[in-house]
TrEMBL record, chain A:
Family under the similarity heading: Belongs to the thiolase-like superfamily. FabH family.
CDD domains, per database record: KAS_III
InterPro entries cross-referenced by the UniProt entry: ACP_syn_III_C, ACP_syn_III_N, FabH, Thiolase-like
Keywords, alphabetical: Acyltransferase, Cytoplasm, Fatty acid biosynthesis, Fatty acid metabolism, Lipid biosynthesis, Lipid metabolism, Transferase
Record flagged with keyword Cytoplasm: yes
Protein name, entry field: 3-oxoacyl-ACP synthase
Protein's GO biological process: fatty acid biosynthetic process; secondary metabolite biosynthetic process
Species annotation: Candidatus Lumbricidiphila eiseniae
Pfam families linked to this entry: ACP_syn_III (PF08545), ACP_syn_III_C (PF08541)
Keyword Cell inner membrane tagged: no
Gene3D superfamilies, sorted: 3.40.47.10
Pathway(s) the chain acts in: Lipid metabolism
Signal peptide: none
SUPFAM superfamilies, A to Z: Thiolase-like
UniProtKB/TrEMBL annotation, chain B:
InterPro entries named among the record's database cross-references: ACP, ACP-like_sf, EAL_dom, PP-bd_ACP
GO CC terms: cytosol; membrane
Modified residues (O-(pantetheine 4'-phosphoryl)serine): 41
Function noted in UniProt: Carrier of the growing fatty acid chain in fatty acid biosynthesis.
GO molecular function terms attached to this record: acyl binding; acyl carrier activity
PTM comment text: 4'-phosphopantetheine is transferred from CoA to a specific serine of apo-ACP by AcpS. This modification is essential for activity because fatty acids are bound in thioester linkage to the sulfhydryl of the prosthetic group.
Record-annotated membrane-spanning stretches: none
The name this protein goes by in its record: Acyl carrier protein
One example of a Gene Ontology biological process annotation: lipid A biosynthetic process
UniProt KW keywords: Cytoplasm, Fatty acid biosynthesis, Fatty acid metabolism, Lipid biosynthesis, Lipid metabolism, Phosphopantetheine, Phosphoprotein
All copies of domain Carrier, residue ranges: 3-81
Length: 336, 82
């Protein structure tokens, strides 16, 4: 077929990508259960037993999600060995940017020396980081970018109600970041991802900003239907995790680590049980002292795992995020 | 085929024991999951999912909220089995 115009050149990238390095920043204050328990008529023991959380990291009033993101990004870039000006894609996964525009991504791209990288925020809640890795991998292999910075950043303490017994006491603040780029070997597997908006109410803000503005509601905060979320997070997500292993062409015996979203220790324990992971697989349990940090939880947990178990470097990790939407995403990565 | 009340009760007692360590003979039809057996919401959901497997029934989340006692659950399972 002849066309009335010259043939367009389309981008094409490298065959493979991998994660080069991760970085992490946690809220500076370790908030113990005892500080939160009175407002929900609870106790340190009750919270530990039901969530496995001992302390959660929370940021001070002057620190925003954008600042946490900047710290994590700087560490990841420095450790990656990639010059910051070569990063031409910045994706920030977040649900807690209280300034809706500009994006955190554009601001931190400039702060870390990656200006004028393509930059945007994405909202996929606790699956946001996995979504970000999927996008970075795809965009690099498609030739749309060369090096990518993916950050999960949350200051969830701005979205909590101290008297809420459903989710608020789980939540913490932090950011985790990863740098991705071309690779000689496959370092990021196919991603299994999706959503189920029929369960949108299972984890949600209890009011809109408009209701707050009009004086008909309090400041919007997060709520969840615990039992519905628990069943979905364990049994439905165990199936998604298995599909991700199948898509990667591996079995759980090939894994070095399992890094689920750090929602609740009971979910992590039951999840691992359902997956029948071999004992050799190290399970990330960062939630005990960080709390649930939504989009930041997987990279924060990865960062801790690599610090505590440097031998995991080069091994395979199954990471799975799941949360408000509902949305989910899972993939296998080669740990940096 | 529908099971008998005794069969379902015995099966539930086993699943409750597996999840919580509560002795099987402490599980009776009139016991409340929360007030008598002190089963929290996460354990309750684990038991429900295992009940679904064992008795081949579906118990939706909305129905779980109404199951206050072991007897409520046993009746629900027998009815769901048709």
């Amino acid at each position: 077929m002849t066309t009335p115009h010259p043939i367009l050149r389309q981008a094409q990238g490298p065959a493979h990508t991998r994660m080069y390095a991760v970085g992490a920043t946690r809220g500076s204050r370790a908030v113990p259960n005892a500080e939160l328990a009175p407002a929900i008529d609870s106790s340190d023991e009750w919270i530990r037993q039901r969530t496995g959380i001992i302390t959660r990291a929370r940021a001070d009033a002057d620190t925003g999600a954008v600042d946490l993101a900047t710290g994590a990004a700087r560490e990841a870039i420095e450790k990656s060995g990639v010059a910051s000006h070569l990063i031409d894609l910045v994706i920030v996964a977040t649900i807690s940017n209280t300034r809706q525009t500009p994006s955190i991504a554009a601001v931190i791209a400039d702060r870390v020396g990656a200006n004028p990288a393509a930059a945007y925020d994405s909202n996929a809640a606790c699956a946001g980081y996995v979504y970000g890795i999927a996008q970075a991998d795809a965009l690099i292999r498609a030739g749309a970018a060369h090096y990518a910075l993916v950050v999960g950043a949350e200051k969830l303490s701005d979205l909590v109600d101290p008297t809420d017994r459903s989710i608020s006491f789980l939540l913490g603040d932090g950011a985790g970041a990863a740098v991705l780029g071309p690779s000689d070997f496959p370092g990021v597997s196919a991603t299994v991802w999706g959503s189920d908006g029929s369960k949108a109410a299972a984890i949600a803000m209890n009011h809109t900003l408009v209701e707050f503005r009009d004086g008909v509601s309090e400041w919007p905060t997060l709520r969840q239907e615990g039992q519905t979320v628990f069943r979905w997070a364990v049994w439905d997500m165990a199936k998604v995790a298995q599909r991700a292993l199948d898509a990667a062409g591996i079995t759980s015996a090939d894994l070095a680590a399992f890094i689920p979203h750090q929602a609740n220790m009971r979910i992590i324990d039951e999840f691992a049980k359902q997956l029948k992971l071999p004992e050799s697989v190290i399970i990330a349990r960062d939630i005990a002292t960080t709390g649930n940090t939504s989009a930041a939880s997987i990279p924060l947990a990865t960062h801790r795992l690599l610090a505590e178990h440097p031998e995991l470097s080069g091994g395979l990790a199954l990471q799975i995020g799941f949360g408000a939407g509902l949305v989910f995403g899972a993939q296998v990565v080669v740990l940096p | 085929m529908a099971s008998s009340t005794d069969d379902v009760l015995a099966g539930m007692a086993e699943l409750i024991h597996d999840e919580t360590g509560i002795a099987t003979d402490a599980v009776a039809l009139d016991k409340s999951f929360t007030d008598d057996l002190d089963i929290d919401s996460i354990s309750m959901m684990t038991i429900i999912v295992n009940v679904e497997d064992k008795f081949d029934v579906k118990i939706p989340d909305e129905a779980v909220k109404d199951l206050k006692t072991v007897g409520d659950a046993v009746s629900y399972i027998i009815k769901a089995q048709g």
